[in-house]
Amino acid sequence: MAVPSVPSPNARILPAPLASSRGSAPEVSAGSGGVPGVAASGASLAAAAPPRPFPTSGELVPNGFPPPAGALVELRGEFTWPELEARTLPISALPEAVLLDGTVRSTILSTRPELRLLLSPHGHLTVELVSPTFSLPPGTQLRAQIDRLGHVVVWPDLRSYRVAPPGSLRALFNERRVDVAPLFSGHPEEEAPGQKLGLPTVRRVVEGPMGRLTLESAELPAVGSGGTLVCRFLLELARLRPSDELCPPGELPLDAHYVWTRGGELSFRGGGLQRHTTWPIDVPAGTFEIPPQMPIFKPGELPPERSPFLWDADTTAAFWGPAAAGAELVLTNPGEVPMYVIVERLPLARVPALGMTRWAAPRAAHSVSFRDFLGESVYAARRVESSGELVLGPRPPPPEVPEVEAAGLTP
Question: Is the pLDDT of residue 99 over 50?
Answer without folding.
Answer: no
